[in-house]
UniProtKB/TrEMBL annotation:
This is Long-chain acyl-CoA synthetase. PROSITE patterns: AMP_BINDING. InterPro entries: AMP-bd_C_sf, AMP-binding_CS, AMP-dep_synth/lig_dom, ANL_N_sf, Chloroplast_AMP-bd_Enzymes. Keywords: Ligase. The lineage of its organism: Bacteria, Pseudomonadati, Spirochaetota, Spirochaetia, Spirochaetales. It comes from Spirochaeta isovalerica. Pfam families: AMP-binding, AMP-binding_C_3. Residues 13-464 form the AMP-dependent synthetase/ligase domain. Its EC number is 6.2.1.3. It comes from the Bacteria. One of its GO terms (molecular function) is long-chain fatty acid-CoA ligase activity.
């Protein structure tokens, strides 16, 4: 039974159970060295002891701007061990954002990755910023003489600190158990600044209880046998609360962690053959396009066989799930209707069984692309489109949808591995209450939309130094207004359908959830990102960031040179042939046949080259920052809407 005093206790207890088990594969150039759970626990003790000598203690705020690596987890736990508060972010975050977080969080210590990063950040520091920081801790070795002379005395490098901590431990100065006993579950342990799609980030205060809830809930959902070690490959940034919570869960489960990157992710999946991973929809969108492209390049007969097997296996899986009660329905069915439907699905499963067995063998090559032994991929930080759900589960790569937010550390809902209902966001975690309310405060019927509220031990303490923002989302009874719109099915599963603040209201009064349309548009190989527009207008328009490779291929087929279609100063694509081609693709996807209403049709499209990058147009979880994009392209969007208006008047 899980019974931890705090989050920090987890790696120490796992080290007691599995001291020689590898906790991390640490990348050194193109090779790796192993770190065991015993080494991890020893390094946390040593660095915690050294940090205590520096004066880090209870309540101190430590800004911590380091990307995925073994040292990240060691620094994180060493700070928490001393009842100090971590304020994490990646080293690849913009200097402006790092500076804002450092200032707003009232940090008195700063951990950075290297001297170059320290110089860039301190160059924008005020005198007050410099005076407030008691020490600058640098992970990689470097030359302190490269730093402003006034700061040199405050610089400490990580490796000498570890050596100092080890020496103190050898002399018997081990206060680990004393520190663990002093940690208060209810005190803030980390302040995670949201990488939201609008405005300045807000500091979400989370405590040990918030994260322990995630360990309890996810241990149950992930179904890991702790005695048989499993491997995970990490691509999401460790400071992201989805990844952070997963690492705490994984440390309890005794996983082996391999820190990867977007560039190396595909090769690391193949090399390390993970049993489970956490992911975001954009990863699967990219893999989906590669799979569809690979199938499209096959010979006619083979292509026909593959697509046929996918289709028949999807039918087999749908029917199997239906017979297990794992389906989305918003209407109560009579006993007769259930009986007839059950008979239909039994027959459909039986008739598609041969294709299902053939698919299991034939699709092995696709499964090998992600290592060949992937037991489950948890997908969060955005809605998983149905087409991804269907394809990957059909070829034997099980993706389990999950939902949460930074403010709930993050998990609230997820599907169950043995009940992986297509299209569902899942059911509540243990100890979690969920309710839906309409705008007028009334409770929606099954199948009706409502704003999702959550209450449970994972809900944040509030936003740091922002009581007004806290009161806007967290009421006196502990209910958190997530701002997300959801519906509940007849069997109690929830489906997230959009963001309340993103809802577009057309001039005719129709409400549009842009997320569903944008997800569908991204089924096209031409479209990397899409932003649906149209607030207070008669019709919807869309800004589309094109896939660079597909743009080049299309231009070649149309015998166009770059200068024939690209407006270089704004990266807009204005060639009528390309516009027509992409518009027809969107019309095919956003159509009555695909389940969309007439007012959801996209009337006009603005095409731009895909220059979207993390930290500007994209969040760390690869979601589009709608407000940023609308402001960046406001002139082109204004022109687009003028053209739409003129077209209507003709």
């Amino acid at each position: 039974m899980l019974n931890f005093r705090n989050i920090v206790e987890i790696p120490f207890r796992t080290a007691e159970d599995f001291p020689d088990r590898v906790s991390h594969k640490t990348r050194i150039g193109n090779s790796f060295i192993d770190k065991t759970y015993f080494q991890l626990s020893r390094d946390i003790r040593a660095l915690g002891t050294a940090f205590a000598e520096l004066g880090i203690g209870e309540g101190d705020h430590v800004s911590f701007f380091v990307c995925n690596r073994y040292e990240w987890i060691v620094c994180n736990f060493s700070v928490m061990l001393l009842s100090a508060v971590t304020v994490p972010r990646g080293s690849d975050t913009t200097v402006k954002e790092q500076h804002f977080i450092y200032q707003h969080s009232d940090s008195t210590f700063l951990i950075v990755e290297n001297i170059s990063q320290l110089n860039e950040l301190t160059a924008v520091f005020t005198d007050e910023d410099r005076d407030r920081c008691r020490n600058f801790i640098v992970v990689d070795d470097g030359d302190p003489n490269e730093v402003d002379e006034s700061l040199r005395s405050k610089i400490r490098f990580l490796e000498p600190l570890l050596e100092k901590g080890r020496a103190l431990l050898e002399k018997g100065d081990d206060r680990t158990e004393e520190w663990l006993d002093q940690i208060d579950q209810e005190r803030t342990v980390t302040i995670v600044y949201t990488s939201g799609t609008t405005g300045n980030p807000k500091g979400v205060m989370l405590n040990h209880r918030n994260f322990l809830q995630q360990v309890i809930a996810n241990t149950e959902r992930l179904q890991v046998d702790r005695d048989n070690q499993e491997t995970t490959v990490i691509m999401l940034p460790s400071w992201h609360v989805f990844e952070m919570a997963f690492e705490y869960v994984g440390l309890y489960l005794g996983l082996m962690f391999v820190y990867s990157s977007p560039m190396r992710f595909a090769s690391d999946l193949s090399r390390f053959k993970p049993h489970l991973i956490i992911s975001v929809p954009r990863i699967w969108e990219s893999i989906y396009q590669k799979i569809i492209k690979a199938i499209g390049e096959m010979s006619g007969l083979k292509k026909l066989i593959i697509f046929s097997l996918i289709k028949h296996n999807q039918r087999y899986i749908y029917s199997s799930l239906y017979l297990e009660g794992a389906y989305i329905s918003y209407k109560k069915r009579t006993d007769l209707r259930r009986f007839l439907s059950s008979g239909k699905h039994k027959f459909r499963r039986w008739i598609n069984t041969p294709q299902h067995l053939a698919a299991e063998k034939l699709f092995k090559s696709f499964r090998d692309k992600v290592g060949g032994r992937l037991r489950v991929a948890v997908c969060g930080a955005g809605s998983l489109p149905l087409y991804l759900d269907e394809l990957f589960n059909s070829i034997g790569i099980p993706i389990v949808n999950a939902y949460g937010m930074t403010e709930t550390a993050p998990g609230l809902l997820s599907r169950e591995i043995h009940r992986n209902t297509y299209g569902s966001t899942g059911i509540p975690f243990a100890n979690t209450e969920i309710k839906l309310l309409k705008e007028d405060g009334s409770v929606p019927e099954v199948g009706e939309k409502g704003i999702l509220y959550a209450r449970g031990p994972q809900v944040m303490q509030g936003y740091y130094k922002n009581p007004a923002a806290t009161e806007a989302v967290l009421d006196s009874e502990g209910w958190m207004n997530t701002g997300d719109i959801a519906v509940q099915s007849e069997n109690g599963e929830y489906v997230i359908v959009g963001r309340f603040k993103d809802t577009i209201v057309l001039s005719g009064g129709e409400n549009v959830e842009p997320e569903n349309i944008e997800s569908k548009m991204k089924e096209s190989a031409y479209i990397d990102h899409a932003v649906v527009l149209g607030q207070d207008r008669k019709q919807l328009t869309a800004l589309v960031a094109m896939n660079e490779e597909e743009l080049m291929n299309l231009a070649a087929r149309l015998k166009l040179r770059e200068g024939d279609y690209l407006v270089s100063d704004e990266q807009a694509i204005e060639n009528p042939h390309i516009l027509d081609h992409v518009k027809k693709e969107i019309d095919r996807l956003i159509s009555k046949e695909q389940g969309f209403k007439a007012f959801e049709k996209i009337s006009k499209v603005l095409l731009v080259r895909n220059s979207f990058t993390i930290g500007r147009e994209l969040t760390q979880s690869l979601k589009v920052k709608r407000k940023y994009v609308e402001e960046k392209y406001q002139n082109l969007i204004h022109k687009l809407h003028i053209d739409v208006g003129r077209k209507r008047k003709k």
